[in-house]
Amino acid sequence: MGACLALSSLASCASCLCGSAPCLLSSCCPSTYNSTMSRLAFSFLLLLGTLVSGIMILPGMEEHLKKIPGFCTGGTTIPGIENKVNCDIIVGYKSVYRMCFAMACFFFLFSIIMIRVRSSKDPRAALQNGFWFFKFLVLVGITVGAFFIPDGIFNTVWYYFGVVGSFIFIIIQLILLVDFAHSWNQSWLEKAESGNEKCWFAALLSFTIVHYALAFAAVVLFYVFYIQPDDCTEHKVFISLNFIFCIIVSIVAIMPKVQEAQPSSGLLQASIISLYTMYITWSAMTNNPNRQCNPSLLSLVQPSSPTLPPGPAPPTPAPSNVQWWDAQGIVGLTIFLFCTLYASIRSSNNAQVNKLMQTEEGQGLTADYEAATGEDGVRRAVDNEEEGVTYSYSFFHFSLFLASLYIMMTLTNWYKPDTDYQAMKSTMPAVWVKISSSWLGLAIFLWTLVAPLVLPDREFN
Question: Quick one: which of 10, 87, 218, 400 has the fewest CB in 10 Å?
Fold first, then answer.
């Protein structure tokens, strides 16, 4: 009897895997909209790929990755440096690049396919919301094929793709954080107006103070650990400018005219953006190749070796424990996970953010009980896109494409191999990309505050 029930359950699951997102996930999340379910399912595929990529660079995994036929057996297909590659370091880097390349190709393909889908009546919407088993097989197939990509210019070219894509994704993360802060602030203000005003205002004030305290503590730590009295001029400029910029946006957020135009704006949003800006500043400084200014540079990045005596070159000693992880990478992945999940379930009424993110005004996460209950009495996810999609399918997949590139750069700490593939190296362009993204992000946040004043004839509510 138990075997029969198990077989019937497996058959039901198999039909769901080939069917729609509502069928696949409604047992876990009943009464949820179809649009939310599909975004969560695609986000799950991205997080699954992230988990696999993270496992590939765990200490000790290089011994297993070297066993992949032809992947790295002390040599490479790059002309001129055969049998000279330090596989203990390079295999983790190559694995992450190829895994994230597969995810990027998968989501970019869907971004192209889903261009101009207007409603769930479009035949392509069935591909967006269903056939999950086959989509998983496609992703696995691309991943397997990616591991057979030869070396050469692939790693270098894909590194620069990752730099550009990560720059854009950092901006998207900031937009999502702004939207989250606005929604958080508006929700608690509404609760304060409905009752227990002192409690809710005290909670808002407490979180705001904590965010600013962490941001200020970060500035102090930056000056202590990432600056030398006679060196690190760039770091001094980065820290000072971003600290000043955070003060400016905080002052603007509480200006009377800004408050009049946008009553929901306040210090909570500015505090979150200030803390995020300090994280980006920290992340940028950890990529400075100057060890005097960057004490957190990983041992993967080895200093230039002294001139060797004539004769056969001794083998390069590999680190006994290849370690890719560091604190800023873990924090970056945590922020990425939060933003990815939030982008999947967000239900925002912020018109500016909705326009930037190509989404419609939020309908909430759950549907009415009657709407979610079918004729057979079973509760399923509700198709809320028959008249029009609630988000741009194409832009959503493009965001996941950028997220794949961001994961790749974060897991490898924005490092790239040196010319002879003996060690990794960090470069100043990575520093400037991150700092530039922090400045652009602050400018976008400032614009969301002053836009109603600069363009009074436009509707921003």
Answer: 10
Degrees to nearest 5, angle at CA 143 with 17 and 346: 55
Q: Please name which of 87, 88, 79, 77 lies closest in space to residue 148, comparing C-alpha atoms.
A: 77
Helices (H), 254-386: 256-261, 267-285, 327-345, 351-357, 369-372
User: H or E segment at 425?
Assistant: strand 424-425
DSSP per-residue string spanning 375-397? TTS-B--B---SSS-SB-HHHHH
pLDDT in tens, 405-418: 999 988 888 887 76
State how far the Cα of 388 lies from the Cα of 144, in Å rounded to an integer.
Answer: 37
Neighbours of 250 (CB within 10 A): 19
- How open is the CA angle 444-449-455, to the nearest 5 degrees? 95
Place of tokens 């809710």: 200
Q: For residue range 190-218, what is the model confidence (pLDDT) as tens digits?
A: 888 877 778 888 888 899 999 999 999 99
First to last CA, the chain: 59
The DSSP-derived string for 69-132 is TTT-SS--SSTT-TT---HHHHHHHHHHHHHHHHHHHHHHHHHHHTTT--STTSHHHHHHHB-H
What is the dihedral angle through the alpha carbons of 72, 78, 80, 85, rounded to the nearest 10 degrees? -30
450, 66, 61, 59: which is closest to 252 by C-alpha?
Answer: 450
Torsion on CA atoms 341, 346, 351, 353, rounded to nearest 10 = -10
HSE of 179, CA atoms in CB hemisphere, 13 A: 26
| Angle formed at CA 418 by CA 413 and CA 420, multiple of 5 degrees | 145
Please give the structure tokens belonging to residue 222: 């930056």
Cα separation, 238 vs 292, whole angstroms: 16
Sign of torsion, CA 382 388 390 396?
positive
Beta strand 424-425 with 416-417 is antiparallel
- Asked if residue 248 has pLDDT above 60, the reply is yes
Please compute Rg for the chain using Cα positions: 25
Angle among Cα 126, 127, 129 to the nearest 5 degrees reads 65
Instruction: Name which of 125, 137, 122, 138 is nearest 22 in CA terms.
Output: 125
Instruction: Tell me if 206 sits within 8 A of 316, measured CB to CB.
Output: no
Report the alpha-carbon distance of residue 108 to residue 104 in Å, rounded: 6
Mean pLDDT for the chain overall? 76
Helix, strand, coil abundance in the chain, percent, nearest 5: 65, 5, 35
Quote the strand ranges of 154-229, DSSP E.
none
Distance CA 450, CA 260 (A): 11
